[in-house]
Amino acid sequence: MKRLRFLLYLCTVISLASCSTPDITVSRMLGTQAEIFPDYKDIIIPCNIAPMNFNVLTEGEHQLIIEGASSELQVAAEDGLFDIPIKEWRRLLRENMGQKLRFTVAREENGQWLAYEPFTMEISPDSIDSHMAYRLLPPAEQWLKIGIFQRNLENFDQKVIYENKLSENNCINCHTFPARNPDKMMFHLRAKNYNGTAMVENGKVTKLNTKTPETISSLVYPYWHPSERFIVVSTNIIYQSYYYHSEDRMEVYDEKSDVVVWDVERGELFTNELLSSPDAMETLPTFSPDGKTLYFCTAENVDSLGWNIDKLKYSLCSVDFDAETAQIGTKVDTLFNAPKDGRSISFPRISLDGKQMVVVLVRYGNWSINHKDSDLYTLNMETGELKPIDVLNSEEVESYHSWSTNSRWMVFSSRRDDRLYTRPYFTYVSEDGTFHKPFLLPQQNPLTHYRDILHAYNIPELISGEVKVKAHDIATAMRTEGTTLTFRK
Amino acid sequence: MSVASVTNIEKKPMKISKNLIALIVTVVGSVLLGVQLQADQAFMFFYRESQQLLFLDWSYLSEVLLQFGGVGIFLSHFLVQFFIHPVVGALTTAALVGGTVWMMWLALRKINDNVALLPVVFVPLLVQIIYLATSYHHYEGLVALSFLAVALWGYSLCRECDYRVRLGVGAAIALVLYLLIGSIGVLFAVCALLFDAMLKREKWYLGLLYAAVVCIAGSFLVQRGEIIDYEFAYTPKFYYEFYVVMTPFLRMAWIATVAVMVIFYLVGLIKQLRPWMNGALLAVLCFVVAGWYLPRHEKEVNGGVYTYMELYHHLTTENWDGILSVEKLNFQDPLNANFVNFALSKKGELLDKMFLYPQVNASSLLNERFGTFVEEHCVYSEIYYHLGIVSQTLELSLAAMAGTYPGTPLLLQQFVRSRIVMGDYDLAGKFVYRLSKTYGYKKWAEEQHKFLHNDAAVEADAEYGLKRRTLPELSSEFVSMNGMFYDFMKALTANPDNETAREYAIACLLLRKDFDMIRSFVEEYYSTPVLPTLPVRLQEAVVTYSERDMDYCRRYGVSEQTISRFASFRQKILNLRHRQPNANPKSQLGEYRDTFWYYMLG
Questions:
Q1: S-S: B370 plus which of A432, B77, B154, B376, CB 3.0-4.6 Å?
Q2: Are residues A92 and A207 in the same domain?
Q3: Which residues of chain B make contact with A145, given a CB cutoff of 8 A?
Q4: pLDDT tens for residues A31-62?
Q5: Which secondary structure element, helix H or strand E, spans residue A375, and what is its range?
Q6: Whether B472 and A244 lie within 8 Å, measured CB to CB
């Protein structure tokens, strides 16, 4: 027993000695900025975010000093990584909510510590949804190894929702949740024996066959109605081609598309001629937060599209929607007129407080994730005025975005880091609608994680909690015959 | 000295001689197997290596190791990465078989130490070797059997243990084997139970616990979504590509393993055989096993696929003469013909020698109607890169990568090269970094470093510089929308120094026998940078469509030599038709085999 106690004591001493690093005192300031990855300098972060670990890109011994209003934390770099202890981090967030944390990176030189210019992170009292769901897939639309995952934004835990290894390594299409609710989810599988749409409700999985004789394809790009009774979805015949030589490597485009509304309770689809016109392609629909307006992108048909892809321009339109009677309005409003503007719009997404609509603009087409020129804009829903969100946009792609439940945060996709691998960036949106400098999804070791990962983050969706469903249950349900939707004429 | 000690001393030389015989049989059997594999399956080993990537860094290794059966997958990939070297594949496989047979023998001799049965122990391994003749069976299947043998031997050492200790050891081995190596743990559970039963160990039936442990673990992992389904969890299917439909033969290696144990037990019930009878039995079993294995193996090896593997190996090693000298080329298969024409082009001899090989039509040059097979995408992406049409290379290599996560070495190399040509250095750098973490491609990756973010170095490089100059103007035009000739001309007009694009464009016109296109091509481009002179094969086409207008021929660069050779060819044809109107003149015009005219004869 004595020996055991001694061993325990020894272990404790050794572990404490190896963990703790003596605090340093800065001798002088270098007067230059530290080179770090990711760029977390002077940003606003949510009060419940995971430790904002980062790597210093210069050689040598480094120490990080994090100063709050009443306390300080020092972290020594290991191979350039500042791995901030999560308990200490949470304490700092708690103690400094609404204030700024000051980060000073110091470098050891001849026994002295020289400090780079400090930077800050302001801790917003507005929390972000605790989880984010996304697909991880190799870029270039490969699907041998893809899956839908969820990340706890308050730490570094990532869990599988569904991986395609369970269903013949098939393609998994876009996933969607009603108003950030993790208890309901739908996504589509394209597979020989598992083909269909998975509807998950409180852990129970149902398979639905969504291709009907009246629709051109299965359901593709979905968005839930706030009542959770309806999902508005596009049906698309999609092609993919590569450019001879272009800043955009490839193009994904629709040859045909329509928008339909899925009445989840009745298991039926319905549409009208405004959403399914033979002369136009309607796609990427969304509902307003009050559910009374249905927005969709639409482009006039283009002859010989493969040879005239740059003529494919999408406008943004809206129609009324009556959830009581399940009726689509018959009058179209055009919020963005592509032929007039010359650009093409996609992914209209309105904050849950109904104040802001953010859209993506490109020169043509709607597969913005492959367009270098793809940028995020705010669109005034009253006047149709477009404003680029300069603080979010870069030289590379900015695309798919998702609002937080409290409308104070938005996650969006960007390829700014290496032009191919899409990564999620977060931005704080003030009450007055101002967007702030974005930051990359924190990782335990951001440099090695983002350098080594061979998957892109795709369709990041903020959700208010963890999705609780067994991947095996999804695979099992998807092997069944499933229920076929009907089409209401 | 006790009686027992004396008996032991007397028995020892006998044991040594049995083990020595067993060792000799194992070594000889393994060596013969190695020789046979090298002779019959050498390119399969190269191919296995060329279809995998093992990144020797923790982030990737942890992804591999932490999955179900991950240690087995890692060890297999680790061994296969060395197959890039000649003979190593056959040598490693034979050594693995030999080692496995030996470990199995060490365990099985406790049931029956008749060394004459040793050839039977080879059977499950040989079945496994037959599986390896197909690329959809993973090397992990063989590695798993090796681990089974080691585990069984380890378990057999628990001879004198209390049954509770034995159960604990057995359950632990079953579980560890199952989690680390995969579904082979199930086979171990069965074998260990049989082993105890055959040796009538105390409470042998409690060995069912091993199966229970493995079943529970498997069920848990299936429910968690870690394993696809119960077939993958409990059967040899785990060692196959997911799309393979399991046949009884594909389960035979496992069944044979159990059968071997039963045979050892049953033969042990027979009264001790005389030494000469054992010798005869050994010889007969060797003969039977070899007599079954060799033809069965030959049957399993798909000739067409194996030829592809051979061609692919020569492609990756840039052995163009190797491609041209492959014995079993099938020119009716466009892919084979595409390899040959590609090799000729790489040697700068496409137009000179293409008609020396059977050409069916333009698909012999480049089959535009290729399917979705990864193999085709790999080859065509290489051909398009050679032509300088790098966007198509990217499309095809990325499509191929869709079927080979995380890609293959050649695909990643194509990706890097294409990106360097396009100036996408960050992306190229990402994959250069990944390749620098591999065993076989580290050196190549390091050589690419000098091109990253260095336009001057790229433009000065013979290969990259030419390809970059071949990039057309920035536009929103899609590649491959207008057929291959349009693609070739797009590259050629962008860079008239692109000799490959010129050769392919002309070869395409000739193989299509489209004289209107040939005429307009010659009339539009002759004496321009795109077609400064008329290659001999094109001269032959010009003289064919304008045989009554020699001035036209001379105006467009047809030489007197071609005109005179055509006259002679024409005369010979006329003579032959006069003498033998129904005969095929090709057989008697061998001296014109290299010409367009000979191809025109059909």
A1: B376
A2: no
A3: 405-406
A4: 999 999 999 999 999 999 999 999 999 999 99
A5: strand A375-379
A6: yes
